[in-house]
Design goal:
Blueprint (H helix, E strand, L loop, with lengths): L2 E5 L5 H14 L3 E5 L6 H10 L7 E7 L4 H7 L5 E6 L7 H8 L8 E2 L5 H13 L3 H28 L5
Parallel strand pairs: 1-2, 1-3, 3-4, 4-5
Helix pairs in contact: 1-5, 2-3, 5-6
Length: about 160
Amino acid sequence: MKVGIVMGSKSDYAVVSRAEGVLDAFGVGYKTRIVSAHRTPSAAEAFSKGAEGEGLEVIIAAAGKAAHLAGVMAANTPLPVIGLPVKSSTLDGLDSLLSTVQMPKGVPVATVAIDGAENAALLAVQILAVKDPGLREAVREYKATMEREIMQADREFQDGKQGPH
């Protein structure tokens, strides 16, 4: 298990599960927990302080609204933390994004787009790939496959286009 995933609420799991799918596809182990920066601050602190000792190497922290979970994780661990802002019912997730990305000097959090679970997981995989050549090759192949799919879609689009341009 290399990636710790924490979410502030069970309602965030619809987004978080997409990150788990990417990690599964790359064969990267993970541990997912519900830990709130505001409602369970002791548990959040314990998770982040114990993550390295549990063999985790990267943390993805998903939260909505006042999304301070990633910052709490980053404050308490030397591990890289990826913030995953979750779209909330208020402000379309802008509140979550700003709460996650606006970290003070000395407490960095890499932040992906609102509901950008797939990119959070891919970034975690790329961080792990720095020291894992097999995983690095899997990332290369993923990118090559993505390129082939887009090129194929473009060819099909160009072949099927009709009417004036």
